[in-house]
Design brief:
single chain; 442 residues; alpha/beta; Nucleotidyltransferase, domain 5; 6-stranded mixed beta sheet; 23% strand; globular
Length: 442
């Protein structure tokens, strides 16, 4: 059996053609990634919106190209960026931009001098970050930003599934529903009473399923419900293996481990997975972005000093290697410590990054580069320690995904040493798209 997986990411759109083999291990026949390129200009510096119809058009073209060249494909699986929402009218048409997971309207201070996120925490005792779909929706309701013809909301990949199959209302897998916030992870349902407190009626909510369901057909192929990109990445990289930690390092960073038990803690979410299991996940807002910020810093200096404006990642890799050697020979009290929470955290957006234990001896480019890489790793390791302490899950193996790890061998080495487990890079670069394809088999 052949299946196609489509991943609607924030910066790229990816697709894979996958074949189920007799060994049980799927084989990727072809993979393709194109630029998303759909961010809309806005005068509001806190707003992050994308052109939903442009995304749908590009995604359909990507899918059609595969279907034209692989006519024996039987199923189509979907995934994409979680948390964000598109408003839908009664005919199943999108009537708004995509409000993405990066949108910061929930952190804006209102007339009461507290943000919407803070108000939700105080009123409903719920931790829901800005960018979560229902936080965005509450803000939009209060500021009369919801389109007049809108009747419901869903993720961009669920909307894609609707457009492919002609559905008028979204059927959303629990992995995506939970990403909106106001979700009871133990009962697997929306917290409707708390939503009522915040002025949201149940009619806005999409239909939710716990398993992978059939949405309908597109060009005579079965289309299944979309799953969240975190879940898809795990499925495409680790399958359903336990005691395996998936580490993704893209713009943000993330760790995920499969668990039979529900467990949450500060900065740890229990996200619905498959067959009643959970992914225990921790996310850093500034993962690979921290390294990109440092490269931008160095590049600006070189441009000012020498008039050159070229990427410096190769030079930084050399500096990181030298910094690692120096760091290994230092005592703990001599080591530079860089905290890379430059964009805060989902729970504490006001947090900042920091540089501590700075001395004349460690004030060098080599140790700054190494320190940023270690800081990126340490933020995720702290989350793993929380999971281990609360569940006794001990990882035996790590799988790395994302360009932040694929292009940075020193970061991979830091991860291995810090977590105390072997790290291998995911077999497929388009992990989420591969996972979406695999999900269509369930």
């Amino acid at each position: 059996m052949k299946t196609i997986g489509i991943d609607i990411g924030t910066t790229t759109l990816s697709g894979v053609v996958l074949e189920k083999t007799d060994t049980g291990k799927p084989k990727v026949l072809e993979a393709k990634t194109i630029e998303n390129g759909s961010f809309l200009p806005t005068v509001k510096d806190w707003e992050r919106i994308q052109d939903a119809e442009k995304i749908i058009k590009k995604s359909r073209e990507l899918l059609d190209d595969f279907l034209d060249r692989y006519p024996d494909v039987e199923r189509i699986g979907l995934t994409g960026q979680m948390h964000g929402i598109v408003y839908i009218d009664k005919e199943g048409n999108g009537v708004s931009p995509l409000y993405t997971w990066q949108d910061a309207r929930g952190n804006l201070c209102e007339e009461k001098k507290s943000s919407l996120v803070e108000e939700i925490q105080q009123t409903c005792h719920i931790l829901a970050a800005s960018g979560y779909g229902l936080v965005t929706h509450i803000y939009n309701l209060r500021h009369i930003l919801v389109p007049d013809t809108a009747v419901s909301l869903c993720t961009i990949m669920d909307y894609f599934g609707m457009k492919l199959t002609g559905r008028k209302k979204a059927l959303v897998h629990a992995s995506n529903a939970a990403s909106f916030g106001f979700w009871d992870g133990q009962k697997n349902c929306f917290l409707t009473e708390e939503l009522h407190q915040m002025g949201v009626e149940e009619t806005w909510l999409p239909d939710v399923c716990m398993g992978i369901e059939i949405l309908g057909t597109y060009r005579n192929r079965t289309v299944t419900t979309a799953i969240g990109d975190n879940q898809a990445s795990f499925l495409g990289s680790a399958g359903t293996e336990k005691n395996t930690l998936l580490i993704n390092m893209g713009t943000g960073g993330q760790i995920s481990v499969l668990s039979d038990q529900y467990f949450t803690a500060d900065r740890i979410e229990a996200r619905p997975f498959l067959n009643g299991t959970y992914l225990l996940a921790g996310s850093s807002l500034c993962g690979g972005k921290a390294y990109a910020l440092l490269e931008h810093f160095f590049r600006n200096f070189v441009k000012a000093a020498a008039g050159q404006d070229e990427p410096l990642y190769q030079t930084m890799e050399q500096l990181a290697r030298a910094g690692k050697e120096v760091h290994a020979g230092q005592e703990e009290k001599q080591r530079l410590r860089i905290k890379t929470t430059f964009d805060g955290t989902r729970v504490h957006p006001e947090q900042t990054g920091s540089i501590t234990n700075l001395t004349a001896e460690n004030f060098t480019p080599e140790l700054f580069v190494y320190g940023v890489l270690e800081g990126m790793s340490r933020e995720l390791y702290t989350m793993y320690q929380t999971i281990h302490a609360g569940t006794a899950i001990k990882i035996e193996h790590m799988i790395g995904s994302g360009n932040g790890l694929r292009k940075n061998p020193v970061l991979c080495e830091i991860m291995k040493e810090m977590f105390g487990a072997e790290l291998t890079l995911a077999e497929y670069e388009e992990e989420a798209a591969a996972g979406a394809a695999v999900s269509s088999f369930f």
